[in-house]
Amino acid sequence: MEKITKATWENAGVEASFNASKTIIMVMDKHLSILAKQHIETRFVKIQAEKSPFLAEKLKIVVLPTLALVNNAKVDDYVVGFDELGGTDDFSTGELEERLAKAQVIIFEGESSLNPTKSRVQTRGVRQSTHSSDSE
Predict the structure, then answer these.
(1) Sorted alphabetically, which SUPFAM superfamilies does this protein's record hold (predicted)?
(2) If residue 44 lies in a helix (H) or strand (E), which one and from where to where?
(3) 115 SS3 class
């Protein structure tokens, strides 16, 4: 995750603000790190609310952890705590992915991009056609 600059703020998709217990930080950070690698179309930015009181106040962050979901330099939605993710810290990355997709800050096509099914993903070699052959 990166430092916040004016350009970052204008293009940010997910602003993560942590400073609760170390366990909570690690849980949310783990899921967001996975999603940041999967969804390169979205900029994920992490701040520490206690070290950035002005920004935390501007983003209206009260409960930690809070994800400020930003679109076109405007906060459109928030994910506050773990309530929307099952109420516990053992939620899956897919649940967080679905929540971020609901806010339209990531591109999501129905199934988690973390666990594509064989029916959705079709692999083939360079010289293979998409049509099956009886000679195989």
Answers:
(1) Thioredoxin-like (SSF52833)
(2) strand 44-48
(3) coil
Task: Go through the chain and tell me how many residues it has.
Answer: 136
Candidates 99, 108, 93, 106; CA nearest to 31 is 93
Measured CA to CA, the distance from residue 60 to residue 24 in angstroms comes to: 20
Tens digits of per-residue pLDDT, 50-68? 888 898 888 888 877 889 9
Tokens representing 45?
């930015």
Q: Model confidence at 10, in pLDDT bands (50, 70, 90)?
A: very low
Phi, psi of 47 (to 5 degrees): -125, 160
Structural domains in the chain plus CATH codes? 6-102 (3.40.30.10)
Strand partners, 77: 69
Find the distance separating the first CA and the last CA of the chain, reported in whole Å: 47
26-54 pLDDT, tens digit per residue, is 888 899 999 999 999 999 988 888 888 89
Q: Which two tokens stand for residue 71?
A: 């679109």
Cβ contact 69:75 at 8 Å: yes
